[in-house]
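// run 5 | inverse folding | seed 20
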């Protein structure tokens, strides 16, 4: 699947979502860098908010700014959103992403997060 530079950002983000496997997560900034927009995390977030992909397709894209822990045991701290089957944690569980809960926060091991390089490789694959 190749992400064409002249296609609309919505299509490009959709192509990235299609290459994120169950059990994996990535961030808005990583998607933006993979698409050649190094400072485009907010643009990706806006597209995600209005894209209509559904919660299960969108849930592996997390804001990955905050981390906690020490080397080898680091995790991303993501706020819970929604309730019950419409919550972020329920959607992550359906996508087989391993996490733990810490109050209202979801803790996702950083080892599960795809970086821009990995996303670019997958987008370039036939």
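// decoded
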């Amino acid at each position: 699947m190749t992400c064409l530079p002249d296609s609309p950002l919505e299509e490009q983000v959709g192509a990235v979502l299609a290459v994120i496997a169950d059990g994996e997560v990535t961030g808005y900034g990583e998607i933006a860098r993979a698409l050649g927009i190094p400072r485009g995390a907010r643009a990706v977030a806006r597209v995600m908010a209005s894209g209509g992909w559904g919660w299960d397709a969108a849930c592996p894209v997390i804001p990955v700014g905050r981390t906690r822990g020490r080397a080898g045991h680091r995790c991303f701290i993501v706020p819970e959103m929604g309730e019950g089957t419409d919550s972020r944690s329920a959607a992550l569980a359906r996508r087989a992403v391993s996490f733990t809960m810490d109050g209202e926060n979801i803790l996702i091991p950083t080892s599960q997060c795809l970086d821009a390089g990995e996303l670019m490789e997958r987008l370039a694959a036939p």
